[in-house]
Every structure is written in C-alpha cells, then in structure tokens.
Amino acid sequence: MLAINGVPITELGKDDKLAEHIRTALIVIKKKRYWKLEFHESKIRASVPGSTSGRVETSAGILQKGTSKYVFQGMEHDITYFTSQAKLANGVTKFKPNYIDFAGPMPLDPKRSADLIFYMTCVRPACAEYTLLMKWQNRQPGADLFYKVEDILADASIKNVHSREIAKVNSYIFDEDFGLANDILINLAVGHGVPNANEINIELVRFNLSNSLLKQTNGKYDMVKINNFLDEVKDTSLARLRSNVLVAIEKRMIINTKTSTGKNAWYDTTAEGKKRSIITTFPVGNDPQTAIIRYLASKPKQRDEFEQFVQAGVIKPKAGITKHVIENIDEPIEGSE
Questions:
Q1: Taking the domains of the chain in order of start, what are their residue ranges?
Q2: What is the pTM of this model?
C-alpha cells in the first residue's frame, strides 16, 4: 500500500492530483508482466577471483526508509510504502515496515507488488532511470544509484553496440587491408599516451595502443576512451592535431596558466619557456588539453600555423599562431558551453 502525506492512497479521491498521478503509474506497472530489480553497474565490483560460477562481488546493498520525499508540481510530499498500519493513542497513524532492504536481485510480481515497485523505482532516488517510468521517477542529480530495473533487451542492445565498437578498434589497429596507415596509428598512439610511439617498431605500437584502449577495469571496458578513439579516426587530422598538442605541451612550446584578469588561458612561449602571447582562453571547469584541441580544430588557419609551429621544433620570432586571435581572447570555445 502507499500513503501520501500520511493518508493511505485508497482514502484519496480523484480530485487529488498526486494520487491520480500515482494511480496512472500503477496502471503502467501492472501492464508489464516481469519486474526485477538488480544492482546498478556502479555497485558491481568484479568477478570473484578463482570462481567458475560467474558470481560477482557487489556492495552490501542499501537499507531504505519506508517514507521518502517525492516532488510533484514543484512541491515535496511524503510518500510511504507500508504493509500494515495502526492508530496510536495520539491519533497518529503508524505505518510498517520502517525500512525496506535491497541486498540483491529482487523479482517482483506487478499484480501483488505494484505499490512496492512504484516506491522502489519512482520515489527512491537510489533507482537508475528507466524509460517506461521516466514520467514518474523522482530523479535527483548526483544521487548514488544502487539498483536498476532489469531490462534484458536494453542491456543486450548496449552490449551489442559495445562489441561492435571494440571490433572496430581492433580492425583499425590490426587489419592489414582496412586498418589505419602507420603514420596515422603513430599519431593516435602518441595522443593516447603510448611511450616512444615515434621510435619503436610499428607492431609494438599496435600492441601498446590496443592495450591502452581495450584495457578492462573490474571486467569493464572504458567506453568513453574507445568512443573518443573512434571519433578521432573519423577525422585523422584531429589525431595529428592531438599528437602535436601533446608534443607542444611536453616541449613547453605552449603553457596553460592564468591571464592578468584570472582567466584560464593557453600561451605560446619564448625561447626561455616564458609565456608570450595568448592562443585562447577557456571557461573554468573545462579540461585544458581538450579546450585547446577544440579551439584549434575549429580554426583551420590557426590550426595549420600551430602544426607548422610544432613541427618546425623552434619558437617563431613573431606571434605566429596567436596573431589572429589576440583581439578575441574572450571568444568561447566551440562545444565547451
């Protein structure tokens, strides 16, 4: 059963908008035959060492209060899940249970447990977003997600996409007919932190780049890193730009520091390694390396001058890459807002 602000929903009529809102969700919940809550990915640590059963280690779960805040039409309400109630001497209704324990996979019957499903998935912020119930879910930014609704089709779709992306990475690195040219691979390897990529054998470059991209942590691939690599492959000149930026940073041909007004900025440097002219500023909170790459990628002329500047290996006596942008240092970086 559910109660709204201490009143069982069964005692509230159709004129109560929140009660009707919840009843609509219960109809949707009951139409879905199979419900199961399982640990969110962030709570699955790793396969148990030496285990052949596929069992995984997880967190200890979460003990949740039976009453929680729920925002509806800009106002907070107390929503309670209960299985029994009793009137106290002072007239206050006491609902039980006081707590609901989620400690692992929880199959739920929508006919008998629709109220509990609603409370666990829509009221409690510990549940991950679920497409079917997004309209009712009480999502809170930054909430610590403990569980999610099992969605076999969605999970399979995500795994299939990941498998295809991993296959693409291997094809680009290792395929002799359709893989990337050696010079492009080297640029990509430098951009992804492969040591001495410009000096070692190309087969070792391939091996180290693959290891960097496809390394698993707790049995999971870093899909952000993989997708960034695939995006760079679409524009191989972007891979070259990223490599040149890293070289310029390493050789202190450019430095990231503050302007006299306290803004974050990239400067080119003098022969002594001191800041000289502003290349671009960027907002607080932006990754400095990503900021300069995005800026130069959006400015073809400055990008060409920058790459010539780096490849020459010397500091030019004139402003060079900065001479076109000194008057526009407050121009926002594309994609940074």
A1: 2-150, 154-234, 245-328
A2: 0.48
